[in-house]
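Discrete fold record:
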Amino acid sequence: SFATSSVLHSHQRVHTGERPYECSECGKSFTTRSVLRDHQRLHTGERPYKCSECGKSFTANSALHYHQRVHTGERPYECSECGKSFVRRNSLSVHLKVHSGEKPYKCNECGKSLKCKSTFVEHQRIHTGDRPHECRDCGKSFASRSALRSHQRVHTGERPYECSDCGKSFTTTSHLRSHKRVHNSERPYECSECGKSFCRRNSLNVHIKVHSGERPYKCNVCGKSLNYKSTFIQHQRIHTGEKPYLCSECGKSFSYSRALRYHRQSHLAVSPYDCSDCGKSFTCSSYLRDHQRVHTGERPYKCSHCGKTFTSRSLLRSHQRFHTGKRPYECSECGKSFFQRSALNVHIKVHSGEKPYKCNECGKLLKYKSTFLLHQRIHTGERPYACSECGKSFFSYGALSYHHRVHIGERH
């Protein structure tokens, strides 16, 4: 029974299927005006209902009401089969299907059966290609609202899911779950070809293409073929110059989210990975790992053309362009092209005349930070690159590399 005839009238639409209130933005329709109003806030970005405990805000009062149970611990909906309890009634309804085995929603395209209507609707978008949820910051679109919400954290920098073992934080629970396998050594996804196992299913999917040789994504500009859609999209940005990831602190933009994430740490003055040999610090563990090879002399990346070895994959990739003749980075001023983006950045300053780095000791102006740091060592006497063979130290990594040949010659 219902308190008023209007509430009864709204309820009857559940049975009739009538949804008279349509969103002018996306065309989705609703049974009541209030539900439409809550929905429209997804498009406007308005979130007027704020949690007094943690400050998180919501588009609807009901969503705030359910969220508050996270803080109170209240879980009023209990499963009569196993005793598991839930914050929401619909979560219990979905859970009950675990016991009954019921999967009433069947996809006509691939035959997959699903328990819940919402996951069924999202699944259908795999086949239709429909991606109705668009990011207002970069225009990227997604099949589900939850995927959009996770993506938006790339722009906000929010990483709410923290690992209790090492403190590293993540944008989604699934990424945290995958990361935890690093600590417990769990690698549940195994390659049937070679037996190599992985923490994540998508890592296995990428690996499988090593065996098949499949590279289905071909660049129309340079002809390069790539084995995964995400790397293909990133590669295209080399040619288009698109940099959709914008730093809210300084306005600098980046072609992929990881670069923005590392850059943000420069504003926080956080470089948590310190080299135990020379004390130099880095924003991410992979940069530190590559740097440490300067001290150990390890050069695991070998050029198949000439046998030259390198400390990082990116340096090998840049070097290989000498053999292929590929120079993908072109100056818009004079048309000169370069093997490396960093070389283009240095060259651009020839046109601008910019020399932003000034030495406080002698007043010399330099175009680039790396040459500025090398120059400063003339005054400080710092020689941070030590030879592991004889202990002799050098101003620059290049000088150390050249010196290493002395010992290689001795062995031969």
